[in-house]
Amino acid sequence: MRLSVFSVVDEYADPLAGSDGRLGEVVGLAEAAEAAGLHALWVAEHHFHPGGVCPVPAVLLAACGARTRRLRLGVLVSVLPFHAAVDVAEQYAMVDRLTGGRLQLGFGSGYLPVEMEGFGVDPQTKRERFDLRYDEVLAALRGEPISASGPGGPRVRLNVRPIQQPHPPVWIAVQRAEAIPFVARRGASLALVPYATVDGIDELAREIRDYRSHLPLGVSASVSVALHLYAGDAPDRARHALQRYIDTRLAARSTHLQAKVAEHPEHASAASVERQGFAHFGSARDIVAQLDAFRQIGVDEVLGLFDFGGLSPADANASVSALGARWA
Strands, E, within 72-222: which ranges? Predict the structure, then answer.
């Protein structure tokens, strides 16, 4: 089982404070992850709210790539209904080139109302938009012609293609169990954020079994699961940060977390997330032992959320270093 970093790039301070602010902290986190021997750093795409201040992940990943040499670099996710397929394909082909073939591609259809409304996307059409753009992006990365101007327009080919052929490895993130067979049938790897969607590790295990059962014969794919992690001697500081993080996700109308909390109000607390096993705070030795439960249910990669809820860069980087030392 691999250990990686996943940053939502949530912002709590003055965005103009410091020389490079929150984005610079993520670059520092990438350096810490590489030094600690972690597998990858992933960043989320978000727009129009401080719960995620990385609207163009390709730029941030390129910056991280310039400061690292081995670390895999991923987007989780590129929100396909918001963008033209040719733009997504061109941007990420460039990142793969600039990073020497280290890119990992995660795709999703979006879920936050403020973003859907801002881009004028009807949530009822997001699945259709996703399906169309997904096929177009992968076709473009393979070097096939696609239309850059819409249906019926002239067909074009990318003039920069990724190093990884036929394209970088692909994940699809889902927040509804019903979507899992769809991901499996495409042969894509699966990304899950269980604190917002499921009630415990047993339900997560069922989702992973469902995914594996629908994979086409002979297809090898991965399951990546996001968990909040803090390895250090001040776990209450991490618990406070997690509560702050949950509060801001609910304030941003995070659809699936809202639905979970509406059915079970106790899940609005950091304590509940920790009891469910989706947050681990304490010594590096204890956390590594606890995470073995995820290996046993078929998780291939833990996506550690280390820099959440306003935790300091020192806390996040120290957690990465401590867990990396134990993981090896």
Answer: 72-79, 103-108, 146-147, 155-156, 170-174, 189-192
